[in-house]
Amino acid sequence: MRLLRSVLLLAALLVLGACVHEPFAGTPGQPEPPTRECDPDTVYFNQELLPLFRGQCGSSGCHDAAAASDGVRMDTYANIVNTADVDPFDPNGSKLYQVLTDSDPDKRMPPPPASAWDPDLIERVRLWILQGARETDCAGCDSTEVSYAQDLDPLFASACRSCHSGAFPPNGVSIQNYDDVATLVADGRLLGVLKGTGYAAMPPGGPLDDCRITQIEAWILQGAPND
Ligand code: HEC
User: Fold this and answer.
1) 102 CA distance to ligand 1 centroid (A)?
2) Per residue in 48-87, is it b (16+ CB within 10 Å) or e — as a string?
3) Residue pLDDT, tens place only, 170-224
4) 75, 59, 64: which is closest to 164 by C-alpha?
5) Alpha carbon distance 185, 220 (integer Å)
6) What is the tens place of the pLDDT at every residue in 66-112?
7) Which has the least CB within 10 A, 11, 29, 139, 191?
8) Residues near ligand 1 (Cβ within 6 A)
């Protein structure tokens, strides 16, 4: 039984390994093989940081492909580590970390009137760099038990709330709480924007990863509970 389990695990790892993108030439980090179990002490770039960088820095007119202010593009792992000068294992030597923590508002990112990032988020970026700034990916895409409070609220907070809050959110769409999200589920716009079908694709900096979209779909199929 044990042997069977390890053979199955090995097979699963090989299959998963085959889907990993080839390492980008010239990037300091190597993509990590996906792991089944997510380690709470590890910062998973693809799940945790990429949506954040895309939503808060890679929006149109800032660090997207077209604008690329200062040559910095915050839309993919390769562009982020290369153009924001990430030095693996050395947060203080990484421009990305320096601009998030700069006390001079003229140099800080995001620039005013946006406020500085929450210290907890900056700490996750620091840890990620300390852990080698790799393209860490936790492929534990479990869509059987998706909880709004635990899984989706933090996701919408990091990927959507920077734009969809305040007195005049884009298109009048506020994404602050469960009721706001439930309204978008009911009129079909949530999946419409996430998949870019029939509506402007959201987030504007690039789609959420497939795992997240699958989880949201599974949650909607279960009746989009406020759990
Ligand atoms: C960088 C800012 C930004 C982020 C981040 C962002 N949006 Fe938007 N959103 C916009 C803008 C701007 C529009 C208006 C776009 C348009 O009409 O072309 C919009 C429009 C929408 C609409 C209305 C679509 C329609 O046609 O009625 C929905 C729904 C929406 N966003 C959902 C989301 C969700 C969900 C997320 C997170 C996964 C998200 N947005 C992230 C800026 C953003």
Assistant:
1) 29
2) bbbbbbbbbbbbeebbbeeebeeebbbbbbbbbbbbbebb
3) 999 999 999 999 999 999 999 999 999 999 999 998 898 887 898 899 899 889 9
4) 59
5) 7
6) 777 778 888 889 989 998 899 999 999 999 999 999 988 888 888 88
7) 11
8) 55, 59, 159-160, 162-164, 170-171, 173, 175, 184, 189-190, 193, 199-200, 202-204
Residue 34 pLDDT > 80: no
Rounded CA-CA distance 206/222 in Å is 26
Sequence-ordered list of residues with C-beta below 8 angstroms from that of 127, at least 6 positions apart, any chain? 43
Please name the residue whose Cα sits nearest to atom 31 of ligand 1. Answer: 202
Residue 220 contacts residue 191 (beta carbons within 8 Å): yes
- pLDDT-derived band of residue 32, with 50, 70 and 90 as boundaries? very low
